[in-house]
Amino acid sequence: MTAAPRTTILAAALAVSGMALAGETAAPEGAKAYFVNLRDGAAVSSPVRVVFGLRGMGVAPAGTQRANTGHHHLLIDRPPLGEGEEGELNAPLPADDHHRHFGGGQTETVLDLPPGEHTLQLVLGDKSHVPHEPPVASRVITITVE
Questions:
Q1: Helical residues (DSSP H) of 18-135, grouped into ranges
Q2: 46 lies in a domain?
Q3: pLDDT above 90: percentage of residues in the chain
Q4: Nearest C-alpha neighbor of 79 from the set 43, 120, 137, 50
């Protein structure tokens, strides 16, 4: 009897545990995340209200496995998705000051940002906070808090 390759054993273990392999949640063609109330170059006052938009998919809380759904993440003052940490397209997004999670299915937030320029990007995550394939993300916008 020959030993099974490690990848086969890992895949079987993940299937039994119910975990999905990172980055495997498909997004429908044309799905798009966008900012409803902010434009690139906008001058705003803090606190800043940010309204999330999503086209071609639905919003569902983290942990929900339903086709064509996800939940929002807001990237603040960091490189665009895919240009940050190596492997970030295939792993759960971190939760810190530069990565805000909205796993309850929220579609807006209020940010207390200091004066100056700030970059914002919306990214949809799957049930495990991993970006979809292909990623559903807004373009990066820059706002100035006065």
A1: none
A2: yes
A3: 81
A4: 120
Give me the number of domains the chain comprises.
1
Contact yes or no for 43/144 (Cβ under 8 A): yes
pLDDT of residue 99: 97
- 50 lies in which domain range? 25-145
Q: Per DSSP, what are the bridge partners of residue 43?
A: 144
Q: Is residue 98 part of a domain?
A: yes
Sign of CA dihedral 115, 121, 124, 127: negative
Question: pTM value?
Answer: 0.84
Would you say residue 8 lies in a domain? no
> CB within 8 A of 51, min separation 6: which ones?
35, 36, 37, 38, 107, 108
> Would you say residue 118 lies in a domain?
yes
In this structure, what token pair is assigned to residue 117?
A: 């320029």
Cα-Cα-Cα-Cα dihedral sign, residues 111, 57, 31, 21: positive
Residue carrying structure tokens 């914002």: 120
Helix or strand holding residue 145 (H, E): strand 141-145
Distance, CA of 110 to CA of 46 (rounded, Å): 9
Closest by CA position to 49, among listed 70, 32, 74: 74
Query: What CATH number is attached to the domain comprising 106?
Result: 2.60.40
